[in-house]
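User: I'm curious what two different proteins look like when written out as structure tokens. Can you demonstrate?

Assistant: Sure. I'll show them one after the other, since each token string lines up with its own sequence. Here's the first protein:
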Amino acid sequence: MRKKMIAVMLLMIVLITNVTVFAAEAMASGTGMAETARSYVLMEASSGKILLEKNMDEEIPPASITKVMTLLLIHEAIDAGKINWDDKVTVSSYAASMGGSQIFMEEGEEQTVRDLVKAIAIASANDAAVAMAEYIGGSESQFVDMMNKRASELGMEHTTFKNACGLHIDGHLSSAHDVALMSRALITKFPDISKTLTTWMDTITHRTRKGETEFGLTNTNKMIKWYNGITGLKTGYTPQAKHCVSATATRDNMNLIAVVMGSQDGKIRFREAAQLLDYGFANYMVKKGPEVGEILGNMKIKKGDKELVELTIEESMAFVVPKSKDEQQLTYEIKYDEGVKAPVYKNQKLGTITYYMNGEPVGEANLVAAYDVGKAKFKNMIPYMFSRYFDLGKE
């Protein structure tokens, strides 16, 4: 009997070990991820590197994840000074007529840009999205043209927008990869939006002929309640699109984007997005080069009102490496352009920086002027003329 018990225990240990090894191998390879999703992609945000994907270029309805582009264009309009956070937007009868998720605004009601953005980001309000589209574009159709133009600029090759909110209409299509691209643009260019995207509950105030009433907003992204490091971003659902989410999270200075499209259930999409994010954080790390604005050197400028100009990098670069290869060293080499004469303008290319991982080239970026250098005036030229005179005299 004792021998049988020992044999059974040994067999159980072997089975448990095999299951554990299999699970670890599956996690390391990314197999068994987001099984109900029609498509998905896991992207590292700073580099844009794809870590996992399934059918990432398949064109399918994106539902309310559409609003990521709407939020991007709103923030870019604010950043450019075209509109302001405190501007008052008058709601049209068309915007007020939107179905689905909404904050039930009335025709003629006024809301600030700030509160409409809250309604879009937190409660996925279709009426708020269309009201902002009309305010920025003049009409929703003109705003949609802006959306498609911006999508093209971002390399979203499998996207055609037909409206600003994501309500189903034939031909309104995107892909998991494209959703990741616009999500990346939003969170990297406007990281402060995370404060709104991770707000669980808030309110706005309706001001109409009937008086003032407070309206509660509850976040549609339930991951903000339980996923460690969550920073956003956006959910979506229509019967045609099924359940979708673009989930963003940050841990250990690494930003990940997990897009799940066409999942079978609202709760399952969150679990599947968490699976993807967990895989990324468990298996990868980021090595970053110099940041934009960091001074990397200086160079002489001929006939300028300054003798030297400081150089910075045009675009920050990051490189994703497996944690199993964390000993890899990121280095860089700087090469200056020659014979540069004034005038020099801020952000003008003046050299290149080449990155190496363990001695192998992995990327290249431009070095640019950190500020303007004007042409030298006569008083600036006197030291140069004396220097030239005495140098010639030595010959």
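Here's a second, unrelated protein for contrast:
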Amino acid sequence: MPHKVKAVISRVKDAPVEVVDIIVPDPGPGEVVVDVLTTGVCHTDLHYKLGGIGDEYPYLLGHESTAVVSQIGENVTNVKVGDRVILNWRAVCGQCRACAKGEPKYCFNTFNATQKMTLEDGTELSPALGIGSFAEKTLVHSGQCTIVDEDADPAAVGLLGCGVMAGIGAAINTGEIKRGESVAVIGCGGVGAAAIAGAQLAGATTIIAVDVNVDKLEGAKKFGATHTVDSSKVDAVEAIQELTGGFGADVVIDAVGRPETYKQAFYARDLAGRVVLVGVPTPEMKLELPLLDVFGRGGSLKSSWYGDCLPSHDFPMLVEQYKLGRLDLDSFVTERITIDQIEEAFNKMHEGTVLRSVVEL
């Protein structure tokens, strides 16, 4: 029997979000219904609200979640009712050209639920990243569920569902940081702070946090930053070079995603160093670099999609690191809020006063 539950939608572009009743259908083949425990308020949800991702309104927002499986459809074998899961937006197909060549982390045909959740009047909802978990229940493909231990704080580990995984993965998976290397992270919001935590986990010994916000720089230290650079007062490239023997960092991660910060990352790396772009640019942004500089500096320029993660591998591994005390996921949770405080949380995010507001349902 379909469920009527409370949820948060974005009905039209750049309007305040609304708490409404939605209808969640029973799961079909390959689908599951989950009871949502926690959902982080992520910049991606704000992008949906502002029209920066598409115009398929109304959107059912939320995607960075821990949940409990409450119903399963036919042919579901990877989870059972009662399992604690982290939701993900990379349910790999196993058949596309990326999967076929052993690179499922780049799957080009990820699964989502086939059925649609709706408003009470039958209007179909577009779930954010195929999840839509600012809701008491949501419908997803079973492959979007990764089982995790029940004794881990759901508010903390649920953040692996998007932003924290993006940052950690940018450092470990995309940047391939090695023990003893130097790393600079430009932008110390949630994703940047996670990249710093990932650099520490990977064994980097010099970790430079760069931002224009002194509070974010101070916060970066608890995630592993060994040095901080206030780029509103000094030249970030020169400061990074000075902190790395005049050479530049082995890996520079741009967690902002603007042409200005990407150029900083490009020139702040050592010869043959790696640049990782994990901050998401807007469609109108353009980048101009001398091609000779691209050639002459060598190394690699990489983009990181979802931290180049494979949820079935990375989520349990990182939860284990959290339980062992090697990864401080708790510090990413700035505040715990209710479902009717999400608009206020978006405002705090815009002001840069939180790493993550987490909705507890």
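A detail about the second structure: The two ends are 21 Å apart (CA to CA).
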